[in-house]
Specification:
alpha+beta, 3 strands, 16% helix, elongated, 3-stranded antiparallel sheet
């Protein structure tokens, strides 16, 4: 579902230059000994939208 949503939001016929990872701005960083971050945040510049994914 996540991949489908990302494709729909970023589909513009261009490279994904309008999608920016902003997780570190919101404290969603990879902690020591963690296999993955606590969550992720993506900003879609063309739509002025931020999507948070919390694990």
């Amino acid at each position: 579902m996540f991949q489908s949503m990302m494709c729909m939001l970023s589909a513009s016929g261009k490279q994904h230059s309008n999608v920016e990872y902003v997780g570190s701005r919101y404290g969603l960083a990879l902690t020591r000994h963690a296999k993955r971050p606590d969550g992720r945040a993506y900003r879609f510049r063309s739509r002025n939208m931020i999507i948070f994914l919390l694990f």
